[in-house]
Amino acid sequence: MAIKEVSIGDISARGAAAEQEFQGEHLVVNMGPSHPATHGVLRLKLELDGETVTKCEPVVGYLHRGDEKIAENMTYNQFVPYTDRLDYLGPIHNNVTFAMAVEKLAGLEVPPRCQAIRLLCCELARVQSHLLGVGVYAMDCGSITAFMYTFTEREKIYSLLEQLCGARFTTSYTRIGGLQRDIPDGWLGNVRKVVDEMEPVLDELDALITRNRIFYDRTVGLGVISKEDAIAYGLTGPNLRGSGVALDLRKDDPYLGYENYEFDVPIGSTGDCYDRWLVRMVELRESLKIIKQVIDSMPDGPWYAEEAKKIFAPRKDKVMTSMEELIQNFMIVTEGPQIPEGEVYFEAENPKGLLGFYIVSKGGGVPYRMKIRSPSFCNLSILPKLVPGHMVADIPVILGSFDFVMGECDR
Amino acid sequence: MATKVVERKPLSIWERSYLPQIVGGLKITFKNMFKPTVTLEYPEERPEIPPGYRGVPTLVRDPNGREKCVSCQLCEFVCPPKAIRITPGEIPEESESRHVEKGPQEFEINMLRCIYCGLCQEVCPEEAIWLQDIYSFTGYSREEMVNDKQKLYELGGTLPDPYYKWDRKKQAELEGNPHH
């Protein structure tokens, strides 16, 4: 800024010059990459006019690990642990989506029990992710209590996953053509118990937050995304449904047998932050409804594709006793599941939106190229359009309402 | 009914007064005060580990004390973060399990790299590597975090063996049917 010369005695001229100096100036502020409201390592380059944001530029990539390139150097099954680290708030859904994408390329249909277990896992992941989403959203608006309650419930889902696959957080549960193992005895009863205990907590959460005046005043009319904008920017998941577009692949393009279960797709009416909250709260209840139906109708039978001998490794008891299975085990582990040549795109309704895997295969057990369409990345693309015009203090609320996760955005 | 628009009604005057939220909030707080605690006093109290937990990978011996690993290096191959390093070796002539022929001369698992995914246990054709229930593994230096063969067997101990694969092979050989 050039220093202007003014005569010392002329106070009104000095005042006018100072006013001119500070009025037109925009302040550039970095929010993040290590800011508690940015849920990880999102950086926002903000241009401020006073307290009002005039420009917002999200800078992503701080958590980039090159997952897509890594995938080219390992077999399909070896990549499953890496999918845990995409959307790490509901990791088991990523496992399922990835396995289904590869199976679609192989033209492989998994048995009904496997599908039902996967579907149950998907809905548990949705509950898990949304519980954190709404809890953190409430915390961003100043209510830490709500976060504590949702996290207590989330902890129970961690325990369920621990019993299911041996790990609380990084599940790595699916394999191409099946699962890591069958569900343990009595597990469905435990799930039922957790689900039954969760409903009163959601009511409590509603009582605490949804009709709370502070939260209401803070979120209503804030960050309004119109239907057209939501579609134009490629928003998916609860953020899109909050704007009133009823796109849910579980209904529109059912996979895993979602068509057999009764549930509703909630949509918002205005597309503001409050609508996104309401949609997530309703989705939580709908997911619990689906989980109950799956528990009641869990089919028996094999939990992996038995006929896919070149894709799913043989069982341990066979490997230990029979030469053929031993050789087969070695072949599948070292060369990978044998997937035919071709290209495939598969996307599923992840908790955060549509997670898609585009896989190019030249045959064999290793993908030639893989592209991951991560919902958080696409959802964040609307920020430059959405944030300007809002106050700085509204940004945590808007970000909270988006419920993104950077592990998936940067992948 | 497929889609439903979320219910969204404006706050009533009673709700705008903020009194019901204070009363409701306090009610929930007091209710939770008298519920049993959900947290653990961690180092003193330990969580219950379910069967099949994926903890620290270890090597095990069979009930006869034979080391089960035959150094096929399948776990080393499959390990996604490349945490395992094996140097294969020959089992000496005078050893009782000479007929197994191969065993690991060195076996190292770098716990700084391990991601506890359990693929090594899943692919092992000898059921020699097991992820057991140790979940907090610490050390003061990087070297300490690399488990060598001795440490791995210490951690692993002995697990029951339903197959006795190599004993059966030896038995078959003694009976003159080596390709049993």
Description of the structure:
The complex is a heterodimer of chains A (411) and B (180). With 411 residues, chain A is an alpha+beta fold. In chain A, 50% of the residues lie in helices and 12% in strands. Chain A has one domain (67-306, 339-382, 392-410): Cytochrome-c3 Hydrogenase, chain B (Orthogonal Bundle). Chain A has helices at 11-23, 67-71, 76-84, 91-106, 112-140, 144-165, 187-210, 213-219, 227-232, 238-242, 249-252, 273-296, 316-321, 323-335, 375-380, 383-386, 395-402, 406-410; strands at 27-31, 43-49, 52-59, 174-175, 178-179, 265-267, 342-350, 353-361, 369-373. The longest helix of chain A has 29 residues, at 112-140. The mean pLDDT of chain A is 86. The N and C termini of chain B lie far apart (63 Å). The mean pLDDT of chain B is 85. Chain B is an alpha+beta fold and 180 residues long. The chains are: A alpha+beta (411), B alpha+beta (180). At the A-B interface, α3, α6, α7, α8 and β6 of A face β1, α2, α3 and α4 of B. β6 of chain A pairs parallel with β1 of chain B.
Keywords:
heterodimer; A: 411 residues; alpha+beta; Cytochrome-c3 Hydrogenase, chain B; 3-stranded antiparallel sheet; globular; B: 180 residues; Alpha-Beta Plaits; 6 helices
Q: Could you give a short description of this structure?
A:
The complex is a heterodimer of chains A (411) and B (180). By secondary structure, chain A is of the alpha+beta class.
